[in-house]
């Protein structure tokens, strides 16, 4: 990192923590902002996100605070935030996502999904991969999933020139037929919302923390589906989940691919390319 960037990070740390930054090194990720590990003069270290959309950074800080206040999910504590910057606790990591860590994740996510609300949505719009994610309160899940996930993200991807009009029309057709495959859940569940390997931090066979949330109250199955999209979780995760919250019959056979259409559309909006073909294959699978 250049001297000018380090000086800017040091100024944020001085304002927020009254500490002096000794050095900073870039970290991976950063859809919502630039991420750096900042070492402090007292020997500690913090994670600092800067740049990007200030509103998205502020939203991330609010989501982390909400999870810390209302759930037992391990997330980095927000130490300080200001427009365009968020300072978070550093979570120590060591090792990959083992079977034992998957089982631990399954228990933690099942506990998260037990947190409920009267309706589907959230008290504010959130972000996923830096993209706005609307969450108006709705009393029916199928209406919420149709309007504020599938149709919304397909329209955004089409407006960005990433999703062809014919493909967007097919998504609209599928969205009008959701009741062929989906039923209303028993109750809304709080979800992390962006459950892939890059957002799951491990330490010695346990989960150390979850980062970069995209929270809402939803059908818990949309989270479980996303956990399989990029091969993040397998049998140990689902066995642990089922111990606490049994899966409804037909999840893997009928509903998983349908729920994964939403994160695929997010990736189409962000990256286009091969994700468009994956959307097409999902639409083929459901006969539209």
Give an account of the 3D structure.
By secondary structure, the protein is α+β, with helices and mostly antiparallel strands. The chain has 2 domains: 3-89, Phosphorylase Kinase, domain 1 (2-Layer Sandwich), CATH 3.30.200.20; 99-285, Aminoglycoside phosphotransferase (APH), C-terminal lobe (Aminoglycoside 3'-phosphotransferase, Chain: A, domain 2), CATH 3.90.1200. The protein contains 10 helices and 11 strands. The strands form 4 sheets. A 5-stranded antiparallel sheet has the order 1-2-3-5-4. The chain has a two-stranded antiparallel ribbon with strand order 6-7. Strands 8-11 form a two-stranded antiparallel ribbon. A hairpin with a 7-residue loop joins strand 1 (21-26) and strand 2 (34-40). Helix 3 (99-113) packs parallel to helix 7 (235-244), helix 4 (141-159) packs antiparallel against helix 5 and helix 5 (165-175) runs parallel beside helix 10. The chain is globular, with a radius of gyration of 20 Å. The termini are far apart. The model has no long low-confidence stretch (mean pLDDT 95).
């Amino acid at each position: 990192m250049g001297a000018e960037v380090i000086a800017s990070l040091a100024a944020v740390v001085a304002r927020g923590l009254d500490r002096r930054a000794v050095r900073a090194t870039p970290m991976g990720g950063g859809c919502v902002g630039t991420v750096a590990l900042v070492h402090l003069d007292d020997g500690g270290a913090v994670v600092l996100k800067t740049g990007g959309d200030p509103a998205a950074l502020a939203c991330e800080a609010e989501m982390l605070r909400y999870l810390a206040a209302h759930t037992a999910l391990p997330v980095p504590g927000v130490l300080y935030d200001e427009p365009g910057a968020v300072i978070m606790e550093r979570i120590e990591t060591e090792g990959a996502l083992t079977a034992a860590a998957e089982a631990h994740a399954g228990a933690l996510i099942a506990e998260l999904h037990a947190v409920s609300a009267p309706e589907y949505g959230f008290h504010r719009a959130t972000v996923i991969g830096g993209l706005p994610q609307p969450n108006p309160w709705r009393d029916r899940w199928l209406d919420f999933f149709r309007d504020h996930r599938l149709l919304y993200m397909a329209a955004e991807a089409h407006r960005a020139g990433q999703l062809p009009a014919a493909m967007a029309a097919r998504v609209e057709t599928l969205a009008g037929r959701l009741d062929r495959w989906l039923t209303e859940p028993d109750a809304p569940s709080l979800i992390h919302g962006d459950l892939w390997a890059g957002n799951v931090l491990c330490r010695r066979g346990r989960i150390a923390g979850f980062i970069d949330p995209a929270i809402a109250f939803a059908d818990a199955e949309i989270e479980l589906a996303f956990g399989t999209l990029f091969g993040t979780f397998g049998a140990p995760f689902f066995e642990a989940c089922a111990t606490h919250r049994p899966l409804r019959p037909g999840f893997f056979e009928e509903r998983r691919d349908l729920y994964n259409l939403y994160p695929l559309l997010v990736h189409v909006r962000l990256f286009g390319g091969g994700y468009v073909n994956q959307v097409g294959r999902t639409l083929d699978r459901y006969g539209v």
